Amino acid sequence: MVTGGNRGIGLAIARALADEGHRVAVTHRGGPPPEGLLAVRCDVTEPATVESAFAEVEREFGPVEILVSNAGITRDMLVLEMEDKDFHEVLETNLVGAFRMARRALPGMLRARWGRLVFVSSAIAAVGGPGQASYAASKAALTGFARSLAWELGRRGITANVVAPGPIETDMSAAVSEARRDWAMQTTPLGRMGRPGDVASAVRFLTGEEAHYITGAVLPVSGGFGMGA
Q1: Which of 18, 53, 54 is nearest to 37 (CA)?
Q2: Nearest alpha carbon to residue 43 among 33, 55, 53, 32
Q3: What keywords does the record list, in alphabetical order (predicted)?
Q4: pLDDT tens digits for 30-56?
């Protein structure tokens, strides 16, 4: 199950997992559902829709064994201009939404004594950025959340890891100013944007048997952006 899986990074992840033979469901909120995948409507900020999405997926496929929490939003602005609701909206989607999805997926994973949790964070979480206080805070918090889950669930055969993309060519990055994009390229050793498929490859690895001994890890897919932070 991939949240926010109807476009960009989420869709690339869903397609990559489907190519591995998994039965994949994606959640979508406003955009059109992708072809060839089970698409369920879900707003991770609304507990009732989280429950209905899981119920639908479980009817079609059975318990969720792999959860990729990818749904996220930005409300970029300077802190002095930010209202409480702006900050809360970002945390509610990016952090609390991930918590809700993980909590709902866990009973099935615990019964199976196997599961994979992957949280899509951001390289900006490690370095911060002007106007991105709420986004960076929400994404940084996913690391603490995943590592706590790693401790809680490791002996039950469940891993919890984080993927931290850097500058990736998506609709979200296309909306960034030219000056911001130039700064990102200047601070990325590879000097170019990544592709959604690059992130999908990292998620595919973390959800596969090759990564059975990896948990509580943060895997950057950033072209070196923010390395060492």
Answers
A1: 18
A2: 53
A3: Oxidoreductase
A4: 778 898 899 999 999 999 999 999 999
